## 1
Amino acid sequence: MSKQINVALIGNPNTGKTSVFNALTGLNQKVGNYPGITVEKKEGICKLPRGVKAHIIDLPGTYSLNASSLDENVVIELLLNKNDKDYPDVAVVVSDVENLKRNLLLYTQIKDLQIPTVLAINMSDRMSYKGIHLDIAYLERELKTKIALISTRKGKGIDQLKELITNYKELSTEPCVNASEIDKDYFNKLRTAFPNQLLYKLWLVITQDVNFGNVNRNEVDAINSFKTKSKTDLKRLQQKETIKRYQFINNTLKKGQTIDLKSAKDLRIKLDRILTHKVWGYLIFGFILLLIFQAIYDWSSVPMDFIDSTFASLSEWTKNVMPEGAFTNLLAEGIIPGLGGIVIFIPQIAFLFLFISVLEESGYMSRVVFLMDRIMRRFGLSGKSVVPLISGTACAIPAIMATRNIESWKERLITILVTPFTTCSARLPVYLIIIALVIPEGRFLGLSYQALTLMLLYLIGFGAAVGSAWILNKVLKIKSKTFFVVEMPNYKVPLFKNVALTVLEKTKSFVFGAGKIILAISIVLWFLASYGPGDDFNNAEEIVTTQFSSENLAQEELDQKIASHKLEHSFIGIAGHAIEPAIRPLGYDWKIGIAIVSSFAAREVFVGTLATIYSVGSDEEETIKNRMAGEVNPILGGPLFNFASGISLLLFYAFAMQCMSTLAIVKRETNSWKWPAYQLVIMSAFAYVVALIAYQLLK
Amino acid sequence: MKYTLADIKRGQLGVITDVSSVHIPLKLLEMGCLPGNAVELVQVAPFADPMYLNINGTHLAIRKETAIHILIDIADV
């Protein structure tokens, strides 16, 4: 049996921890969630020398073991729980050679937990450039560990790191800072009360605001013999601890590290002069945003058209090749169009995540946060809200999770509440198809009307987000400490491997996550559209044939009439007619009504639903767009999708809260059903009213 | 004359003398914002807020409302 060792990668943000993880595991990695919470869990397998296998877990980045967010809690939770199946046999602390001082703080804390720890000093390729010299032997002695100097960019030192991990048993588990000296009395009492527990572990449990699985905080509190410290006192002690650790680190680095400032060349200063400049900074940011939108609209339309027509022909082909029957129909009319509705997203999602991950990797995103903070604060948001609002154009779910690093609860809550207004990629197919149907072709100042409409819809989304943030800021009476700190990492050329893996991973999880819902709904819809109660549905052929017997219709036309009669009296038709009174003032018929209702599960279902409804009983190979263009308004005559109803639909989709997954995430992140319920009701009511006004004015 | 970090100008070099533990979160301390450490202003956003600082080699941005709780000595240039 081959032995597998557990390795935990730990490190500050921006140290290239994920690059190390990618270098060790390559494609042998999977991303999931920690049970019960939405923190991403990255794990992978790495083959070590001498046939040893390592299970590597990439823990969320943290500056210390004093957790201030859900992500950071995960790190402590694991390191304090020896019974966890992922509890590390060896920890690898990844640090950045340029920020060694700060990175070592976390390292000394991990050492105090007496876990065998390897120190991996990353970005060593920048040492000569920065004039840094390290006395490795001295540092290894003082820090009581083994050091691997690595460069994930140049692929150096990874073998040495693997070697050190394999020999983890030789590592010292002795701590290098004695934290208990900050208050000897207190720590002695602690030791007497819990003789069997590691002192530093107890200290961590006491000072954190959360309960940990294995050591219950209340249990610790219950023994009163030492619980003599108030919160402020504890905070002062933590401050003392931090100072003590830094003293040790400063002393160690004084001898172990020399920096020759003369040979240090700094590109970052020059870049920051421009990129965070009062004028140029904003212009450049605006230009980058334009580029992103251009990519999403323009560049991805080619593969999207291709996917659309491919699925239409696949559907047709299935019908021709497979034997006739309910299963073939389910496949050709339910599942394939449903799947097409998912696959069509891939190009856009990939482009968006490509840009977002390049912006993050390069260090530019922090500059945007810096530039935008003052402006965003006027609306009750934080500079850090920019990241969720931008990534909200891909999907609100990761965007809402990205709000976690906003320190102020009020700013964070407002960001969570308004993010769903940004135009996520799920709205895009709805927009694209309706724009193509109702907005005339033609150009204004060289820009096509259709592209302008799309641009306008994005602006409306952002406007609604910022505007409602402004209102929420006035309305919400939440007092929370506002404090804001953002690290400005050095600029880096993004590593292709990291970007590619992110794009691949995010696209995959989006497609499979949303895919499941869309597929399930398409199947259910198909059944509802293909079966119905009573005579009207089951004897449709007879009824229609008698009705039109005098008119001498061709067989083809008659079939068409039968199909639409059936659809109208199917389960879905009955449900659609039931809600029709509510949506008729908006210019929609019952089929659109069904699409809207089903897209409360997820917006992207809209096109898929219409595709399913329209393809039921239809024999011709046609794209969804052509089918929609052919629909006639049953009351007024004329095309159903005209300018008035089209604009009304666009506005409805711009504002309505139609995504169950987002609501679920909001519930998790705010820990209450109150906020998602508000979102659902207020956004949807607003959407209805705006759509109603638009249609009534335009019709 | 007592200065706070909010007073620092570009090109000046400051040394942190005291940090109000009530107003300053632990996270900022852990990032190196501790008495004795050198601090320098890298860039200011419009309206001088937030401030982009280099504290002890760590580059970070904080708001002015936080900076006023950090006392510094400013070295004469």
## 2
Amino acid sequence: MRLEIDWTRCDGHGLCARLLPERIGLDDAGFPVLGDRMVEGDDLTHARRAVSACPRLALRLERAPTPAPR
Amino acid sequence: MTTTPLRGAGTHVDTWPPVWVLGAAHVLAGTSGGRLDLSAHRETHGLPRRRDRDELVRDAQAVRLVGRGGAAFPVATKLAGVPVGSRTHVLVNGSEGEPASHKDRTLMRLAPHLVLDGALAVARALETRRVTVAVGDAASYWSLRNALDERPDGDGVRVASHRHGFVGGEIRAVARAMSGDVARPPGRRVLPTVHGVDGRPTFASNVETFAQLAVLLGRGVDAFASVGDPDEPGTTLLTLIGDVDHPGVVEVPTGLPLSAVVGERVGPLLVGGYHGTWIAGPGDLVLSRPALRTAGAPLNAGVLARLPHDTCALGEVAAVSRWLAGESAAQCGPCFFGLPSMADSVGRLCAGEDVRSDIARRVGLLPGRGACAHPDGSAAFVRSALAAMPDEVDAHLRNRGCGRPVRRALPVGVRAA
């Protein structure tokens, strides 16, 4: 699974960075900076917790790699 | 190589842009006297061959046609990915939200029937009648509307005004606006081929792409590919800005040395417009989308610019980065906050403050963090500018400036409301 952010939804609450600090940091304005996006195995539990904690439903776990926009 | 001034040669102020053809005229054929009405158009281009979808895919594949808006996606692949049927839409993007680019509005003004021939041929191949042309300026709008009045087959074509800036001209934002929604790229990565105008499958591409398709169907594969580079046969439209041999809109065969197109003078060259890449000079680069992409300087919508020697180069870069910041659709935080911060830092560098590491950090935080490629493209513009202009940066750091005024050689226009 792959972590994705809908940037049009994200308001920079920052809960994801607290719940998943090994993968998500925050920039100066408080918006998430993603490290390794691919999540597998035991890490999925933590990632799912972060996804469900996002108050804007901006953070998602997606199955397939998303196609490039055109 | 012959140089044929078509219109307004030498009178840049009143009739910008002058229009030129270097070599073979394809999309601009016959326009030296101005706009082609329907009979002049048919005399020049004939009737496009009728093609079903599979045949059109084969033709587009045979000439390796790629989209002329920016992403340079293969037309054949995109066509093959759209279902055939009356639900499918054809969307012609003529919004041209980049103030440096004028090729699309030039084409719509001079050869509206060619654009419509292309759009209607695609619609016929896809067995649909739903065609929308989104247009950003009044001259193009009326040129197309008048063209539709002249044609017997233009009933189903909608021409819609679309003035929503740089980001609003991104194809998914246009598709959304044409569906009655806001003119902003969607946050989820939906493809127009699946979810386009009115939520329906949509073949969407740039104005020039449709004109090139019309040339392809008018002349056939062999004649289309009789000029240009084997990598990307045919011609391409460019907008040339600043200290170049032929400023204005120019049609050229692909495969020419870049130096033949922009001239041999020294100075950094901007390839691909305001989401593009500054390079130290044309070197031995060749003008074709595949070659330039491989070289790390994608052609995008075809803007090439070289700054005149009497303007402050870094100041020009700062002005464009401020403009890019203002063009954020304000829907994604990293872009809305990150682009103004980056522009401020470029301004401080202009004033002689050594904020290079700060700029590098801010530039590095932009790519991949938005609904569209605006943060990525803006970051590439600034990063490559500083890399291609080390002497300018040094001059500003040593002397708090280069002594030249900012002449606004790079147009930034007024943001659409």
